[in-house]
Amino acid sequence: SLGQSAAGYKSKPLVTIADVKNKTSEYIDTRSITDSIRVQLLKGGTMRFATDIVGMQNQTDELTRQNNTGLYKKSATAKVGKMEGAQFRIEGNITSIVKRSSNTTDVYYKFSLIMTNIESGTIEWADEKEIRKTSKR
Predict the structure, then answer these.
(1) Does 72 map to a domain?
(2) Which residue range(s) make up the domain with 124?
(3) Cβ-proximal residues to 13 (8 Å cutoff; 6+ apart), any chain
(4) What is the distance, to the nearest Å, from the Cα of residue 59 to the centroid of all Cα atoms in its chain?
(5) For a Cys-Cys bond, which of 8, 50, 86, 128 suits 112, CB 3.0-4.6 Å?
(6) Which long-range CB contacts under 8 A does 33-41 form with residues at least 24 apart?
(7) How many structural domains does the chain have?
(8) CATH number, domain at 131?
(9) Single pTM value for the model
(10) In sequence order, what are the beta bridge partners of 96?
């Protein structure tokens, strides 16, 4: 698993996660899937997460508010330039294949994830899971 892969590092690696891409013809809440992956990996205690692209605007807005509005004591504000860059990026996608017969429809989903070392560009871990959904007409 990804958590076991990260457990081999001396310290908890700092990771960022991109939204899972939906490459199916159906609506799938991929942000929810991305959030669930992050929660499970954090619960495993083997990695830390940097703010992702979606959350970065909120992060920079908060730093600006604390440092540029004059509302806060300088000694009590979060300092600009102290964020840490992630060492690894997790990204993935969901694809599907639909097979129809006279009375059933089978949808095969494939969920794939990879973790890439941002500095070297090497893929450190990858996995996929297939799910089948059958419906009768």
Answers:
(1) no
(2) 2-50+85-136
(3) 6, 47, 48, 87, 88
(4) 17
(5) 128
(6) 33/94, 37/90, 37/113, 40/3, 41/2, 41/3, 41/6, 41/15
(7) 1
(8) 3.40.50.10610
(9) 0.79
(10) 109
Whether the predicted pLDDT of 59 surpasses 70 = yes
pLDDT at 6 over 80: no
First to last CA, the chain: 37
Q: The tokens of 110 are what?
A: 């494939």
Q: What is the pLDDT of residue 137?
A: 73
In a domain, 59, yes or no: no
Confirm whether 76 is domain-assigned: no
